[in-house]
Amino acid sequence: MKPRVAFFDFASCEGCQLQVANLEETLLDVLALVDVVSFREVMKEHSDDYDIALVEGSIARRMDEERLQEIRKRAKVLIAFGACAHLGGVQRLGNHWSPEENKRIVYDGADPRDIGDGNPFFEQPRHRAVDEVVPVDAFIPGCPVNRDEFARVLVALLTGNKPPIPEYPVCVECKKKENVCLFTVGKVCMGPVTRAGCGAACPTFGNECEACRGYISHPQEQAQADVLVKYGLTPDEILSRKTLFTSRYLEGGRTA
Amino acid sequence: MSEIKIHLEHVTRVEGHGNIVFNARNGAIEQVQWQVSEAPRFFESFVRGRPYHQLSHITSRICGICSIGHALASLKATEAAFGVTISDQTRILRRLAMHAENLQSHILHVGYLVAPDLLGVGSVFPLIQSHPDAVRTVVRLHRLGNEMSDLLCGRTTHPIALVPGGFSAIPSARSLAEMRQKLVDAVPDAASVGQLVLDNAGALPDFTRETEHIALVATDEYAMYDGLIGSTDTGRHPVADYESIVNEFVVRYSTAKFTQHHRNSYMVGALARFNLNSHLLRPLARQWAERFGLQAVCHNPFMNNVAQLVEFLHSLEESVLLIDELLGKGLNPAEAPAKVRAKAGRGIGAVEVPRGLLIHDYTYDDDGLCAKANCVIPTNQNHHNINRDLAAFAPTLLQKPEAEIALNLEMLVRAYDPCISCSTHFLAVRFVQ
Questions:
Q1: Closest chain B C-alpha to A233 CA, distance in angstroms
Q2: Nearest residue of B to residue A22 by CA position?
Q3: Lesser CB count within 10 Å: N end or C end of chain A?
Q4: Would you call A178 an interface residue with chain B, using a CB distance cutoff of 8 Å?
């Protein structure tokens, strides 16, 4: 029997699930290897009997935690799929304020009783990564995920191998592409500490790396500090300027 | 006593989480309700304090399917706030990027999400066996839209090269010429998908409810990137007046922001654009509209699917012409973005994304840090209209078996191609009759 795969989404833009569709013809090959038994975004059918659960999105409210715990109970393998599931996503920036302040800004004019904790849809939303709520077996980083990497990770899991997620920084891929280092043109780039695997997509198109794939597990902190010093920057400065995806590390704990 | 209770939790084949609740007793509807249970992400709150050059990168993350449109609405708002003028070349490249997204998004919806309803299956997966050629055609067209986004924006989802003032990387003239050829070659594929939908168009319910349609309008083109706000009821309005058009408001018994203009609800999206701008469609697109009998002003929301197909053909034709214009003038692949000097001020950017009118409105401080943001999302503008449609459509279904009622209600919601992750506000309207 083919392994049964299910996709689930929490707070996210669903752009990572879209990358599955964006595999185009390769998707047809993937479908020869697995049975997709649940994928709300594209199919009506649903089954609670699955082996691999791919979870997109950050976990915000109690109702989301409970739904995730159910998925964890049923899945043999649970994969955090994309930056929201892996790190908490850009929306984690909102954790800087209280839920009440966020609600006041966005739902200006609403009756406080309607958007208070008595309404489960609004109960204390704080965005967290999936592994801060349940144990996770593997993660696929990126905002969005790189679709080829997704296919490689899936094949690795199906063949009992370790998911091939790089343990070196974006700079390695950037050098391979012979890009001009963005520090030399006065930009601040997170490439030196960020996990590779995206093909240095942003620097290649003239933009600073925003660390959407999270930090590498063992960054060469001294080498990174040397680069920053050379260009007149401090680690604190780079962290305060570039926190789009890495609030998780600032909030404490640098797992995953 | 006969009782029908339908609760479709997490409607499938739409973007994001929404529920339909339907209760009827003795032939009378007690409740029909479209709910959105998506977790709020608070973009308008957490962009406060972020520097202007990050804004389009943050807000493109509102939506995975229309990330290019969000990035462009965002950049237009930022550029308006700082008084930045973009080059002609930038404007054409941005319009191309919007058409790339329109191609990708519309074929995804019509080919992957709606076609299963027309062919009586639950998803595209069984169609791989039963209609292999059609599926491969849809995949090819979808790949084309994505390749075009890659070429212009550096990535299919969450564009990289779109930056304040212009582009951080510009495709070569050669790669644009190759893309032009692929667009021309795609016309027969697009026609075969058109034919498949036409052959099965009888599966689209014949339901009409008059409502107001709102979209950008321009005098010289089928508006996507620029224009005034047009209404089928009230004519043209400057974008600066958008707040008095969308009228976001909160009702006592609901926590949602609704929008309401001339009537109690309005519709945005491909059908609204068609209704306001059909005379500006390119010839092939117009031909296909005629084949479907689609005529402005059409008040059948299910025809939004057909309008998307018509727009797909329009985007193919328009993109070819835009590339011709770009190459004819001589492309400058080294053009730097226009200079951007941050200053305190407010700017509004409006574009048409696949699902309709999108507006970003930012206020910046002296240092170019965002002080205030408001994003008006197409799907939020449609939620109220969906509810009005459900209330009018549901009574016509009461004689049908329960499964068929459920399918019809789902198809109505799906016709709007809702993008629920985009809609940052919770909605719960109650119609108790």
A1: 18
A2: B143
A3: N
A4: no
